[in-house]
Structures are given as C-alpha cells and as structure tokens.
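anyone seen this seq b4? input:
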Amino acid sequence: MTVRRDRIFPLVLLGSYGITFGAVALGSAPLAFDDHPGQLYRVWHVVARGAAPWTWNPDWWAGYPELQFYPPGFAYAGALLHWVSFTRLPVPAAYHTLVWIAYLAPGLTAFLALTRILGSGWRALPGAFVALTLSAGTTSGVEGGVHVGMVGARLAWALIPLLLFVLVPWIEGERRPPWSSPILIAAILLFHPAALPAAVALIALAALAGPPRARRLAVASAVLAVAAALTAFWTGPLVFRLAETRALAWGGPPRVGFFGVVLGLLALLGLLRARGGGRAARVVAVLPWVMVVVTLLDRYTLEPLGARWLPANRVVDGAWLALVLAAGLGWSGRHRSNGDEPLFTATVEAEPSWSVRHREPLIGLAGVLVLVAVSLGAGASTLTLWPRPADWPSLATVERGLRLGDLWTALRKAPEGRVLFVRSGLPLTYGSGAREWYRPHTHVTALAPLYAGRAIVNGTFTHPSPIAALVYRGDAGRAAITQLAEQLDGRSLFGRPLEALDPTTLDEYADRLGISVVVAVDEDAPGLRGLDESGSFAKLRAPEPFILYVRRTPVALPRADPSGRWTVTLAADRDAWVSTRTTYYPLWRASVRGTPVEARRGRFGDLQVRTTGSPRTLELAYGAGAPEIAATIVSAVTAVGWLAASAWGVLPGPPSRASDRSWLRPAGRS
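predicted toks r here
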C-alpha cells in the first residue's frame, strides 16, 4: 500500500507549521490574556455546578444562569475532555487542550474540504493555510478566536468546512445527506450561533445544486429541523427567557481591506473555474456571495428593525471563511488527471512525469507565498503568521506579575459580601503611552470565585446580565449593551464618570448588590473620591497595583444549604419590598416556612420579596420550569429517534467498507 504523497505531504507541512506556532504561542499552560480566564471559569462552572444551561451561577454578577444566554458548546467540550479522562485531565488542562484544538481546527477542516473538492492536497494548501492563520479583524480568526479567547466562535467557524466535507456526496447526487449533518449543524449552533447563517446557506446551496430541487430543499429543511430540535434544550429557554438577558450589540460595520479584495478577485476566478467542475465546486464558488448578501441584510435590514443581537463583525466571519474556500478554488483549480484517486492505493503507483510531479507542489507553495506577501502588504493583522511569546502570557505568568496571590489572600480575609471590581480587566502594560482601552489586558479577576472564594460583580468580560448592564450604564433595562466593558474601565461605573460617583450613590449600589469589598488599581486613584469620602468603606493597604476598600460591616448574602435551597435572613421594620441581593430570574421561588412569598423584579434588576415588618429567614428555591423541561424532552426524544433511524437504515449511516475511502477522492463525478 502506498501513500498519496500529494495529500499527506502538504498536510504534514500545514500541521508542522501549526504545531510550531502553537508551541511558541500556546505552550503547555492555560493562557491569561484577555477573555481566557473567564472562558476557563465557564468550563469549571459546567464541571462543578452541572451541564444544564439554566444552572445558576452565584459567583458572577449577583447570580446568573451563566450558559443560558451564552453559547455553551465550548464549555461542554472542555468539561467532556475532563470527564472522558476520568478527571485525570484537570479543568485548566482540558481548557488549554480545547484552545489548541480551536487553533488548529480551521486549517485542518479547510484542508479536508478543499482536498475533497480540488482533488489535490497541494492545491488545497493555500486556502487551508489562510483559514489557519487569518485574523483580519474577525472574531473567529487567530487574534479573536485564539489570542483574545473567543474559543467557541472559532470552533463553530472550523465546523463549516467540515460540514461542506460531509455534504459533498449529497451535493454530487446521493439521495440523502449523511447522518452526521444535523449533528454538525447543532454543534455549530451550540458553539456560536453567529456561524449558523453560513451553515444554513451551505446546506441550502447543497440542496439546490442538483435535481430534484424541491425534494432536496425539503430534505435540507428536515435536516435543519432535526438540528433545531437537538439544540432545543438550550435555544428553547433562551428564546422564552429573552427578557432576562441584555443583547451584546457592540461593534461597527465589517471591514474588507486590501487582502479581502484580493480574496474576492480570486473567488470571482473560482466562479469561472467552477463552471467546468462538479457541483461541489460550484457550491463553494457561490457560497461567499450568498454570505455577503446575508451580512448586508443583517447589517442594514435586521439591525434597524431591532433584531440585531450580535455584532455584524461576527456574522461576517462566515462570509470570510466562504471567501477563503472560494479563493482556494480560484487560485488552484481542480486536479483533473484522475477523478477517482484514493489517498491509499493497494498497488504501487507508476512514476509520474517530471511536470506532473512538480506542478502540484508549485501551485500549492506558490499560492501560500503569494498570499503571505499580499497579507504583509495589507498589514500585520491580516494573517497572524508568527507570535511574540510576550503577547501570549500564561496564567502563571500573570499571577506572578500582578501578585495575584496576595490579592486573593486579602479578599479571603475581608468581611462577608461580594467583591466589586472597578474594572472589567487588569492592564498588562503601563505608562502614559499605554492607557487606551484596547491595550493588552486580562480578565483574570473572573477567577476570584475559584482562587479567593468570593462572589464578584464586574471583573469579567462584557456580560449580558441585567446586573452587568446596571454596572455599565446605571440601569438594568432591556436596552442592548453597546459598549465593550473595557471601554469603561477607569472611566465610569454605574453609568457615571468615576470621579462623579458620590458616597451616597455608591453606598446605595453597594448595599443593593451586597458589596463588601471594592477593588481598584492605582491608575483609578484620582477618581475614587466617592470611596475615599464614604462612611461605609475604609481604605486598606493592599499589594500593588491594587487599592482595596472594605465595608465596615459584613453583608448577608443568600447561602446554599446541602439540599440546594438558599436561605437569607431579611430584616424590615415595616411592610415593604426588600431586596434579596441576588439577580431576579423567573425560576426563583420564595417562601417562609413553606408558605410562598410574593416576589418581583426590582429597579436594580434584583430579586425582591414582600416582607411583613419582622425579621424572617427566607427560603429561595431554584429549579427548571416548564419551558426548560419541555425543551429538554424535545432534544432527548429527537436524539433517540435520530440514532434509531440511523441504526435501522432509514438514514444514511457511516460509509461501508466498499466506500469508506470515497471521501478522499475528489468531487465532481456525478
């Protein structure tokens, strides 16, 4: 048996580059740059508190169902790595493994898809290399998805070429799409819904690629319906409870740039080359232009109607990836020497001519070099080709540099109550020339619940909870959050300039949110008049660069008992509504000695209960409601039914031995 060298060698080159880059940038320890600590916490949340998306997280933002309003796929994947290792892989190591996978995956899946369509690994290499290294302002690229830490967005992005890869036989004429297609679409949705438009466009084009189109569109709709049912356990409650979240609608219009124009020209060439190719090549050639229309609709139609819940620069990531795949077709074209060549052959290959042996590598390597040269001319942020290790600090490095161990110790000794961080993140660079919000920073304070055992308010990345909106802009209303939290750091708090926060206002917010400690950094000192003059907080000596203000008396917060119920003693001198100092959510039920107590949402987004004027121990029970239970049943029944249908042969199952190498053959022989 001989190895198809035109498939293996370029794959080895691509993988070697990716592993070398990863060894320098990612290393063997969890990253602490930007969002990574908070994303690590979310994996820990699943492991420690449960996988149900509505599971309550009491540690951030006065409590919130952490994964109900954020795509839970990457947190589930990290927890799964921890569990399948029988917990031998610690949560930080499982998360870091996931970051490695997220970095390498787009290049590898693009290579698989393009190799299947173009018929040559060398011809697939330029497009796969760009998919691996692209940044260009995308949130799913190397900068956003790996360096900054939007891991879920990059994992969803990487599954789009994989979906194309598995759909090729159906595109080329098979009766049914593969059994894995709804699973892949469901995974894309759970990793990040912003990639879903690209997946929907892809399966729609796959259905329209050949006759009978009406029947194939019906099949594609059924696949999407199954994917929707599989993910109903998350999307059902998400839609039903939208009033409990705040849209993250920050970001400006997408930018194309010179490199995007070059990819666009190559994609236009791909349209011409696809005319003589198979159906799959035509789908790849058309996909970017469909995605351009989808992005424009999102930006200029859905946004004015108030339906824009995600920044356009996330929706556009699918268009970028489609453009990369089509540009790969435009540069390389399809390999036409033999349309039925497997990766492995049982006989010895005849020695090809010199021109054939060298043409394929020249096409691939020249494409990589040309695209690298174009990207360097377009700007260093277009393709992330090589890392500076100092720009990728590990968690251990940041802990040492910021003396976080001393901070955690000080917080553990503080009176009972939550910790309010004046900033969402801590700067990693200092000096008069490095005070912009986008300077290198870390949201490592999001890990305070793990390392200091303290619940926190702020100190995380931009968050969709009502209490986060309260901290960012001073109200917990339904309006979208339109600014990144980092843009407010050191400038404002509760919607007011930091220096304008008077002691009375600050004390009111602190009391309602159960704040007993306030943490700032030395850069914030000039704007802390409200704390310096407060009669409720005293300034303590703290390890540099931190400034600590500690409440003179502890604050009672709800406590969980072994049964899972929460209790808190409320004191009121009259019949009134009293705050429980936790976030309002419809799944809370309040009672006193088994008798239900009236509850409501307070002005600050907190859970308030009606008191009769005497001190009482309030019991709070939290559990799934009818929408959560019904949606979970839908997902469970769909999963069982889909597996049963696959096992009984109603759906196309895994390839048989006679065809198990068909995916390695180039598409186009319909």
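Residues 337-351, 655-666 have pLDDT under 50 and may be disordered. The chain is about 50% helix and 10% strand. kinda curious what u guys think
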